[in-house]
Design a protein that fits this description.
Length: 418
């Protein structure tokens, strides 16, 4: 009623005027809104965002090898199971990552040429027997101390345990290829190049199931080399890490030809005990170490029911058993042996905890070297100072300056393991 009274108050003439103006108002358009800016591309929208590191914060991933040039102990290379190669030029205070632009991130071994520290080799694909072991695509070479890399072949080896460079001729290199963890592989064995990696010769092959897990050179007589051959096969339901084809081999002509070492070995069928053990030919993983100040002295560990720690004083021609196999911690996973470069009686043996001997391998203790993390795979001893030790394990890199009594954990680089 109120609205009607208002309209009634307008009168007839007012209503006619209002109706005549309304169509004009209805046809009047509001002012056009200003153009909206076009949506920014996705790249522009996130260009101000920055990634922030949130971990790992305490422990890192598995280290397979530690290498230090003989010319400068402040330079350290660490071969990582799944993080390429780390390098420090200040003794482990800070690190830079190498090998980031290559096709694979897993490195089984790294080696620096003794005659030229600018020449660095890397064997891709770790040689460990774990389900988590990653495979590689051959051997790499750097001519600028790790800044750039070139694949030098052997792509089908998949797992490389060791790279050895001639002490005076960097063009001569040997590679110990363990090969495919999960199946037969004709590429297993020891390879040699004399032209810097342009061509390779397959100088030691046992069969498609037996690869090389260790390779060492006599630096006083570089024509003498020792190789550990290992028969292995992993499946999704288990692992077989022994067989009749695992054995220690020796070459006296620079790796061109090889001979199986049998004298004094537990797998020697010529001197088998009576009655003959059923597992006589079941030999597993083998480690080798040479005393650098007198290369007549060689040590080895043999994974065997009758195996253990052995010592030779005539370049591997004869052997003396020093300790039983119980002294060797989990040989299928570790089997890394080192002799102190200044003491032929002092030995180090990798394990969940580092094993240490002061009497040539007769007795061992696991309490002398207690690092911040377990499972050692890489180990280096300063040839000029035996107190200076660098250890690579499943937690990263540890450094000692008092021969393992105390350790500094080099926790300045995030290391993940996938």
């Amino acid at each position: 009623m109120t609205k009607l009274r208002v309209l009634g108050g307008i009168g007839l003439s007012g209503l006619v005027l209002l109706l005549s103006v309304f169509p004009i108002l209805a046809q009047t358009r509001p002012a056009t809104a200003p153009d909206q800016p076009a949506a920014k591309p996705f790249e522009s929208a996130i260009q101000s965002l920055r990634f922030r590191e949130i971990g790992p914060a305490t422990m890192g991933g598995r280290v397979n090898d530690i290498e230090v040039p003989i010319q400068d102990p402040k330079v350290i290379y660490a071969a990582m199971a799944s993080a390429g190669i780390l390098k420090s030029v200040n003794g482990g205070t800070t690190w830079e990552t190498l090998f980031d632009k290559e096709a694979v991130a897993t490195v089984g071994d790294v080696a620096v040429a003794p005659s030229n520290p600018q020449i660095v080799w890397a064997g891709s694909g770790e040689s460990n027997n774990r389900q988590s072991s990653s495979w590689g695509n051959g051997v790499y070479k750097s001519m600028d101390a790790g800044k750039t890399w070139k694949n030098m072949g052997l792509e089908k080896t998949l797992a490389i345990a060791r790279v050895v460079i001639h002490p005076t001729n960097p063009d001569t290199v040997w590679v110990a290829a363990t090969g495919n963890l999960w199946g037969a592989s004709p590429e297993r064995g020891v390879y040699k190049t004399t032209d810097g990696g342009k061509t390779w010769a397959h100088v030691l092959k046992v069969n498609d199931d037996t690869g090389a897990t260790e390779l060492v050179i006599d630096h006083e007589s570089p024509s003498v080399l020792y190789a550990a051959m290992y028969q292995r096969r992993r499946t999704v339901f288990g692992f077989n890490g022994s067989g009749p084809h695992s054995a220690l081999y020796k070459s006296v002509d620079g790796g061109d030809t090889w001979k199986m070492v049998t004298a004094g070995m537990p797998y020697n069928t010529d001197n088998a005990p009576t009655p003959r053990p059923d597992n006589l030919l079941e030999t597993g993983r083998i480690s080798i170490a040479i005393y650098t100040k007198n290369t007549d002295i060689v040590y080895t560990t043999i994974e065997h029911a009758n195996g253990g720690v052995y010592r030779s004083t005539d370049k591997g021609e004869t052997w003396t058993k020093m300790a039983e196999i119980a002294a060797v911690p989990r040989p299928m996973y570790f089997s890394k042996l080192k002799v102190d470069p200044n003491n032929e009686q002092r030995l180090w043996l990798a394990g969940v905890a580092m094993q240490h001997s002061e009497d040539g391998g007769r007795t061992w203790t696991g309490n002398f070297s207690r690092a911040p993390h377990a499972d050692t795979h890489g180990f280096w001893i300063n040839p000029n100072d035996s107190n200076h030790i660098i250890q690579g394990n499943d937690g990263g890199v540890n450094i000692s300056f008092d021969r393992g009594r105390t350790w500094d954990y080099s926790n300045t680089v995030p290391l993940g393991y996938f």
